[in-house]
């Protein structure tokens, strides 16, 4: 059960500074910025959102103008690999070197080892305000990997705290055989919250296998989640093949494309053309700044000249759903970090020089609709009253600092970092 304090049948959270993207389009402004919001909570669910606090409200928690977001989404993670870095040793710089080092570590992936490491990751993510995680799981043969079953069990164990989806990360070479493709697809879609995925790179590219995967997914009416063009190539061949296929095959689901680093290294005219085509398809882009900055253009004794970040601003300008996520934590791909999408967004803000980060780009770490097929407009009404309250009122310097309160079902359950302001210390029910 959620460790939340009991809440009355109806109460209010008052004076929340919510981001512009989360508010109705006719929301009033003050000095060009959205007015503070008041949220009515009934039985742990948001029932009303208003810019003015009703005069008859008695039971409320005053947020005092602090910046607030709904619970966070970790849209791309690798819980099977996490927290292995200390036992791996030296890793050859670059993506392929990390893949090889990680492959060598898999002999240690017992049921107990996978469970302990993945649960540690879930605990860390939850303490940072994450309520939705999509993890990729290496799927190296036709047989179901042990990690798939472990994560499925953890999803059930954590279902009251975190919505945990799992993606089969299958190398494209394994899908060259259509029988194997169909077998893996059936195993994946028979799993609750299971999603078919694939690793598509120049070292394993097979257009026939990729096109068959897309066509079968379209026939089965399922979503896909792809590692695609995670390299600084002159042509994003994976994305080009995907678009060519989608322009001839009706696809009713959603295709999430992670990394797409090659969009930043190809000629600008080609990138612009591909983004224009992409905007007409059911595709979501996910940028993973930690691993992309660490692994792309990686050479010993040479400072990287290219960042490897996909074209975030250009995608958002075209209305393409765009997300930012943590990716790897303390493994061969990324030696550092923790499961905190706010930190990933902060890094993307530096790398991609993002502006209006709180009011616009925070959607990229909160809106789980970007992972679904029909892309409904995000609406607080009817959702659990789960929020993160930051120890700041300044939208221009966010995200800065680490201090935050977690609200679950309308009740404050904990401060995730040591807090210093009166807003944090004066609240009742903090544990």
What attributes does this structure have?
single chain, 431 residues, Urease, subunit C, domain 1, TIM Barrel, 2 domains, 8-stranded parallel β-sheet, 18 strands, globular
Largest sheet: 8 strands, parallel
The number of helices is 11
The proportion of strand residues reads: 15-25%
CATH topology of the largest domain: TIM Barrel
State the name of the first-level CATH class of the largest domain: Alpha Beta
Strand line-up in the sheet with most strands: 8-9-10-11-12-13-14-15
Distance between the termini: 16 Å
Number of domains: 2
Q: What level of helicity do the residues show?
A: 25-40%
Secondary-structure map with pairings?
Layout: E1 10-16, E2 29-30, E3 33-34, E4 37-42, E5 45-50, E6 60-62, E7 68-70, E8 72-77, H1 95-105, H2 111-127, E9 130-138, H3 146-157, E10 163-169, H4 178-189, E11 194-200, H5 207-220, E12 224-228, H6 237-246, E13 255-259, H7 268-278, E14 283-287, H8 289-295, H9 312-317, E15 322-324, H10 341-352, E16 387-390, E17 404-408, E18 411-415, H11 422-425
Parallel strand pairs: 1-6, 8-9, 9-10, 10-11, 11-12, 12-13, 13-14, 14-15
Antiparallel strand pairs: 1-4, 2-3, 4-5, 7-16, 16-17, 17-18
Written account of the structure:
With 431 residues, the protein is of the alpha/beta class. It has two domains: 10-70 and 378-425, Urease, subunit C, domain 1 (Roll); 72-352, TIM Barrel. It has helices spanning 95-105, 111-127, 146-157, 178-189, 207-220, 237-246, 268-278, 289-295, 312-317, 341-352, 422-425, and strands at 10-16, 29-30, 33-34, 37-42, 45-50, 60-62, 68-70, 72-77, 130-138, 163-169, 194-200, 224-228, 255-259, 283-287, 322-324, 387-390, 404-408, 411-415. The longest helix has 17 residues, at 111-127. The radius of gyration is 22 Å and the shape is globular.
């Amino acid at each position: 059960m959620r460790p939340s304090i009991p809440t009355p049948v109806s109460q209010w959270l008052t004076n929340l500074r919510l981001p512009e993207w989360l508010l109705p389009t006719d929301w009033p402004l003050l000095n060009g910025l959205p007015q503070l919001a008041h949220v009515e909570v009934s039985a742990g669910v948001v029932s009303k959102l208003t810019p003015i606090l009703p005069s008859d409200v008695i039971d409320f928690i005053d947020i005092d103008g602090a910046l607030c977001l709904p619970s966070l989404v970790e849209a791309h993670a690798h819980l099977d690999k996490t927290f292995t870095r200390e036992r791996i040793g030296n890793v050859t710089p670059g993506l392929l070197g990390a893949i090889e080092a990680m492959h060598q570590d898999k002999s240690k992936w017992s049921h107990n080892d996978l469970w302990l490491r993945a649960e540690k990751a879930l605990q860390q993510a939850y303490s940072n305000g994450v309520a939705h995680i999509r993890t990729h799981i290496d799927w190296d043969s036709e047989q179901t990997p042990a990690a798939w079953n472990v994560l499925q069990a953890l999803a059930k164990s954590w279902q009251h705290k975190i919505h945990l989806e799992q993606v089969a990360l299958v190398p494209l070479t394994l899908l060259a055989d259509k029988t194997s493709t169909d077998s893996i697809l059936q195993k994946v879609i028979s799993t609750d919250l299971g999603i078919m995925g694939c690793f598509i790179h120049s070292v394993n590219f097979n257009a026939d296998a990729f096109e068959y995967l897309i066509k079968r997914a379209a026939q089965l009416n399922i979503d896909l989640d792809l590692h695609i063009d995670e390299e600084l190539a002159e042509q994003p061949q994976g994305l080009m093949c995907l678009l060519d296929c989608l322009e001839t095959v009706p696809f009713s689901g959603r295709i999430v494309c992670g990394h797409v680093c090659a969009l930043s290294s190809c000629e600008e005219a080609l990138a612009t053309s591909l983004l224009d085509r992409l905007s007409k398809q059911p595709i979501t882009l996910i940028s993973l700044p930690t691993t992309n900055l660490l692994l792309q253009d990686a050479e010993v004794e040479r400072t990287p000249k290219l960042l490897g970040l996909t074209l975030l601003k250009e995608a958002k300008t075209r209305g393409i759903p765009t997300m930012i996520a943590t990716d790897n934590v303390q493994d061969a791909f990324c030696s550092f970090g923790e499961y905190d999408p706010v930190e990933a967004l902060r890094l993307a803000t530096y790398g991609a020089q993002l502006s209006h980060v709180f009011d616009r780009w925070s959607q990229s770490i909160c809106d789980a609709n970007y992972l679904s097929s029909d892309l409904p407009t995000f609406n607080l009404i009817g959702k659990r009253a789960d929020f993160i309250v930051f120890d700041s009122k300044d939208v221009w310097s966010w995200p800065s600092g680490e201090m935050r309160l977690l609200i679950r079902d309308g009740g404050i359950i904990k401060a995730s970092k040591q807090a210093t302001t009166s807003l944090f210390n004066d609240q009742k029910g903090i544990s």
